[in-house]
Amino acid sequence: MDERTGPDGEPLFVDTEAGERGSDGPFFAAFRGADRTHRWGYLCGNCESFATAMDSMGRIECTDCGNRRKPDEWDAAHE
Predict the structure, then answer these.
(1) What is the largest CA-CA distance in the chain?
(2) 5-23 pLDDT tens trace
(3) Domain span at 18
(4) Torsion, Cα of 34, 54, 56, 78 (10° steps)
(5) pLDDT at position 73, please?
(6) In a designed cystine with 42, which of 9, 24, 51, 52 is the match (CB 3.0 to 4.6 A)?
(7) Residue 18: burial class (beta carbons within 10 Å; 0-12, 13-18, 19+)
(8) Residue 76, in any domain of the structure
(9) How many CB atoms lie within 10 A of CB 67?
(10) Looking at the domain assignment, is residue 75 inside a domain?
């Protein structure tokens, strides 16, 4: 786990060992504590930004660089 400073200046702990594959780079889970009990969000592995958003289908997108992860489940009805 790598300790990083989050957007509000709080320490966040990033699991760089296991990432979610994105179009331009992986997304790494970020936590409020090193014990991984409080998930905070994601760090974009492409541009190192915490400015990411996730929808109800599991799609993740970095709002800074456009890196994207496809949804967990997908069919044509969701488009």
Answers:
(1) 41
(2) 999 999 999 999 989 999 9
(3) 2-69
(4) -150
(5) 64
(6) 52
(7) exposed
(8) no
(9) 21
(10) no
